[in-house]
Amino acid sequence: MKLPGRRILVTGGARGMGLEIARLAVARGAHPAIWDIDPEALIEAERTLRGAAREPDQQVAADQVDVGDRAAVAAAAGRLEAGFGPVDILVNNAGVVSGSRIADLAPEAVERTLRVNTLALFWTTRAFLPGMVRRGEGRIVTMASAGGLVGVPGLSDYCASKFAAVGFHESLRAELREAAPGVGTTLVCPFFVNTGMFAGVRTRFPFLLPILDPQRVAARVVRAIERDRLNVTVPAFVHSLKLIRLLPTALLDPIASFFGIHAAMDHFSGRPRGRQETGA
Questions:
Q1: Among 173, 185, 162, residue whose Cα is nearest residue 95
Q2: 68, 11 in Cβ contact below 8 A?
């Protein structure tokens, strides 16, 4: 899908990878809209996007939205389409991480993770998919994670939410293949991204599993949209996780431990609570 003139909505778009995706889109002639829960970050992000616009008539929209709130999403979608126009590309990027082991997880933290990382996918997609289907074109991007392919200690709620995101996306892709082949989908599964959300995480073999630069991942996502690609998996070694999962558990766990996956969160510090943004 060519981006010039297209309207793209990026959730969690006020910072990090979400802002990078919106910035690259506007630089290619798209009209970006961003949703985020942080009003101050939204103001600065909107200013950045307007400065990156290459044409004077490019639209930029920003709205404070809790994407885990079904009613808030429905209301914001109505506002957006009334003042901005129909959304051609939806990038479900907003996400949160708790970073605690199961015994230390507060019930509220679990609910928050599943609300923002999983339930929000349903609310945003249901808000904009019908219009795409009517128009016979569009694209929905799901920001999942390598943590949606293999479980990581200290990320039980996050991995559960990202496994759910992968399942959601695969079901959506299959439904659209039959009902609306003109509406494409892209699933993104990166390793940890250096946005601050996963501050403190470590990797044992950075040449195989590097902590990723958000600009690099955002560029891959935008290229995937432009080239109608179904999947973005970065780095390439993450593909091996799909093969590792075919092994018996007695082999899977030692291999994951050898590659440092089970120790990645041992020094996690993370980003302050209350900020929606996906990192991996």
A1: 162
A2: no
Asked if residue 109 lies in contact with residue 98, where contact means CB atoms within 8 angstroms, the answer is yes
Question: Contact at 8 Å (CB) between 115 and 158?
Answer: no
**From CA 121, how far away is CA 171, in angstroms rounded?**
12
Rounded to two decimals, what is the model's pTM?
A: 0.93
pLDDT tens, residue by residue, 40-89: 999 999 999 999 998 888 999 999 999 999 999 999 999 999 999 999 99
Helix (H) or strand (E) holding 212: none
Catalytic positions: 158
Q: How far apart are CA 169 and CA 186, in angstroms?
A: 8
Backbone dihedral angles phi then psi of residue 38, each to the nearest 5 degrees: -100, 105
pLDDT, tens only, 233-272: 999 999 988 888 888 989 888 998 998 888 888 778 876 5
Q: What is the DSSP string of 158-184?
A: HHHHHHHHHHHHHHHHHHHHHH-TTEE
Chain centre distance of CA 145: 8
Cα(6)–Cα(235) distance, integer angstroms: 28
**Three-state DSSP class for residue 151:** coil
Q: 3-state class of 38 per DSSP?
A: coil
Q: 30: part of which helix (H) or strand (E)?
A: none
Between CA 26 and CA 189 the distance in angstroms is: 23
Residues 6+ apart with CB under 8 A from 78: none
SS3 230: coil
H runs (alpha helix) in the chain:
16-27, 39-52, 70-83, 107-114, 120-135, 156-179, 214-226, 239-244, 249-258
Which tokens sit at 186?
Answer: 């892209």
